[in-house]
Design a protein that fits this description.
This is Sulfotransferase. Pfam families: Sulfotransfer_1. With 324 residues, this protein is α/β, with parallel strands linked by helices. 44% of the residues lie in helices and 9% in strands. It binds 3'-phosphate-adenosine-5'-diphosphate.
Length: 324
């Protein structure tokens, strides 16, 4: 590990010689939060997640009934893990009962595809109940072939670039204050806009899923954090229809939305204390503000303009717009 405070996905604990050889052939840059990031087929990754991507490209076999939740980091992953878990399992775990989300962090209920494949190439998801719900941050073009070929469903959620950046900025500073100290926010914004940020380039990778959802709406459902926040019930019903488990009762929808709200999840003991198993990230690091437009507390007007300008340049003509 590079540092004891850095979580497993930013370290090198499980890195194989094969990955080390691959890394030595790739362009790399000094990163923020990690000492090096690697450019792998159009995206910037940590060495750990890169190993996970390569492993799951080789070994992961999608089932026809799988539901894949895809996001860029800090775009609503935790929230959607909770919503999708509650939705898919609502007959097994009625929301009014002793629900697993009341005692388990959403990240421990839904596996992280490339994260698990980083730790071991022999991951076995076959024991997950059907439909399997699996989460990933993998760009569309790097998804395992079987995910694209099978009729499994992909729910993709993105978030306004300024809020995504700011959320990641605070996440890193909370997790690894020493590693991130001395890295000015101006430099981080510049790197983000150049795409040289963990999980980047933001706009190009969001657009891949955007265009795919336009081309193949039965395969990829494209949603945004902002719409999910503004009209959670409408969006969750859309997701339910898409994955083939529409709601019969309005009551059920509102109960799921309430259970998974920021206020509800962030106040639970399990999400306030302790660290997640294996990855070692503090559970409460996934719950900060949960707002639309929260970037205003962190970004100056001029830094916000830098990101807005990049957004205009990158998204112009795509039909995709962010409201904040
Ligand atoms: P990940 O991709 O690393 O898993 P992710 O869950 O996407 O992280 O991002 C965390 C963000 O989602 C935080 O945003 P903030 O920093 O702007 O506050 C977090 O607060 C927010 N979040 C977590 N749970 C919820 C929820 N139930 N409702 C709304 N936002 C949430």
């Amino acid at each position: 590990m590079e540092s004891s405070s850095v979580p497993v996905y930013y370290g090198d604990e499980y890195l194989t010689q094969e990955t080390r050889d691959l890394l030595s052939s790739l362009p790399s840059e000094k990163g923020w939060l990690v000492s090096q990031m690697y450019q792998f087929e159009g995206s910037w990754q940590t060495q750990a997640l890169l190993q996970g991507i390569v492993n799951c490209q080789k070994h992961f076999e999608a089932n026809e009934s799988d539901v894949i939740l895809s996001t860029l980091p800090k775009s609503g992953t935790t929230w959607l893990k909770a919503l999708l878990f509650a939705l898919i399992n609502r007959h097994k775990f009625p929301v009014s009962g002793n629900h697993p989300l009341l005692v388990t962090n959403p990240h421990s209920l839904v596996p992280f595809l490339e994260g698990d494949y980083y730790v071991s190439p022999d991951v076995n998801f076959s024991e997950l109940p059907s439909p399997r719900l699996i989460q990933t941050h993998i760009p569309y073009h790097l998804l395992p072939v079987s995910v694209k070929r099978s009729s499994c469903k992909i729910v993709y959620c993105c978030r306004s670039p300024k809020d995504t950046f700011v959320s990641l900025w605070h996440f890193g500073r909370k997790l690894a204050p020493e590693e991130t100290a001395g890295y000015p926010i101006e430099t981080a914004v510049e790197a983000f806009c150049q795409g040289k940020f963990i999980g980047g380039p933001f706009w190009d990778l969001v657009l891949e899923y955007w265009y795919e959802s336009r081309k193949n709406p039965d395969k990829v459902l494209f949603i945004t954090y902002e719409e999910l926040k503004k009209q959670t019930e409408v969006e969750i019903k859309r997701i339910a229809e898409f994955i083939g488990c529409g709601f019969a009762a309005e009551e059920e929808v509102s109960e799921i939305v309430k259970l998974c709200s920021f206020e509800s999840l962030s106040s639970l003991e399990v999400n306030r204390q302790g660290k997640l198993p294996i990855i070692g990230i503090e559970s409460n690091a996934f719950f900060r503000k949960g707002e639309i437009g929260g970037w205003r507390d962190t970004l100056s007007e001029s830094l916000a303009e830098v990101i807005d300008k990049t957004t205009e340049e990158k998204l112009g003509g795509s039909g995709l717009k962010f409201s904040c």
